[in-house]
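In response to the reviewer comment on reproducibility (Comment 2.3), we provide here a single inverse folding case reported in full, input and output, so that an independent group could reproduce the run without further information from us. The structure tokens appear first.
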């Protein structure tokens, strides 16, 4: 089955053609980064307007690069939630009309589940495993028992990890997107130059939850309080020290979740899964006998391939949506451990 996947949940306008859930025939990503850079963040109204202007061309390019015609498509899958509502509506409206015109099935895809599926495209991992979703909007640790069977174990109680990266980078005028810039600067910095604090959560009922608001505040408003003796106050040192603690907060919960559940497999997804320190820390788990996978860098960011891949799984099992489906900015209902 050949599925067209469309992704417009934020500022990436992407379309991909995937065969049987894993063979990527094309994956076109039109990024809006340069157009949002002056604002050092994504402007929702600008993002949705650009999706409207670009989506038809992006879809046509994906079909052409796949070496097929529209008549070869068996279904259309599109991100329908969560995300920026205006951006989602562009993708969902286009996908419904496109599928209707071709008389083929249409299905809405949850953005979080798509990111969790992304690594399965390139590195299939046996269920169950511990899923780690890290992005600008989400930070989730979950047990994944199937492509649509996800049990949330822990999440951030305030800022997402990617959001914290972006806000710290914006405050210090380091550049946009913040995660990419901080990761690059960190390579030339001392991670112990600033001993920024982690959260002290006393939440026995949810021991895997995380918090990034306090760390962000410490880096922005109390930096000098945590500077090590003799350390230089440089962008590189700030970036390295912040990144060390941000990744550390997550990894402490990941290790605890693995120990408590007994799971021996881990898969990460989302834009922050491209972070070099996080990838290194996750990879180090293999020394303890764990199997670790994460998507290639192109599949970490928002992309149509993960949407098409997951769409195939639903359609294979006879699941599809009708024209009444609409976009939603809210996260789907996930079972909470």
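Designed residues, in position order:
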């Amino acid at each position: 089955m050949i599925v067209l996947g469309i992704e417009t949940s934020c500022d990436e306008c992407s379309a991909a053609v995937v065969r049987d859930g894993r063979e990527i025939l094309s994956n076109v990503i039109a990024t809006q980064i340069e157009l949002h850079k002056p604002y050092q963040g994504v402007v929702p109204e600008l993002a949705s307007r650009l999706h409207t202007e670009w989506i038809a061309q992006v879809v046509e390019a994906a079909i052409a690069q796949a070496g097929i015609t529209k008549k070869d498509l068996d279904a259309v899958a599109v991100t329908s939630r969560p995300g920026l509502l205006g951006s989602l509506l562009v993708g969902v409206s286009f996908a419904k009309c496109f599928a209707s015109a071709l008389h083929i099935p249409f299905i809405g895809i949850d953005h979080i589940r798509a990111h969790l599926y992304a690594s399965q495209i390139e590195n299939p991992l046996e269920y169950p495993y511990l899923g780690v979703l890290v992005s600008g909007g989400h930070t989730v640790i979950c047990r994944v028992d199937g492509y649509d069977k996800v049990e949330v174990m822990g999440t951030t109680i305030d800022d997402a990890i990617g959001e914290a990266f972006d806000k710290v980078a914006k405050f210090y005028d380091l550049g946009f997107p913040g995660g990419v810039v901080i990761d690059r600067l960190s390579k030339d910095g001392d991670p112990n130059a600033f001993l920024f604090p982690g959260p002290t959560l006393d939440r026995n009922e949810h021991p895997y939850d995380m918090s990034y608001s306090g760390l962000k505040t410490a880096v922005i408003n109390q930096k000098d309080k945590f500077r090590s003796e003799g350390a230089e106050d440089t962008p590189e040192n700030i970036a390295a020290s912040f990144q060390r603690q941000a990744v550390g907060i997550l990894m402490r919960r990941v290790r605890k979740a693995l120990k408590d559940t007994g799971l021996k497999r881990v898969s990460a997804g989302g834009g922050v899964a491209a972070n070099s320190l996080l990838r290194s820390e996750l990879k180090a788990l293999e020394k303890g006998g764990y199997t670790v996978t994460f998507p290639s860098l192109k599949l970490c960011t928002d992309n149509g391939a993960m949407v098409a891949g997951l769409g195939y799984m639903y359609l294979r099992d006879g699941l599809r949506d009708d024209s009444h489906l609409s976009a939603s900015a809210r996260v789907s209902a996930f079972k909470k451990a």
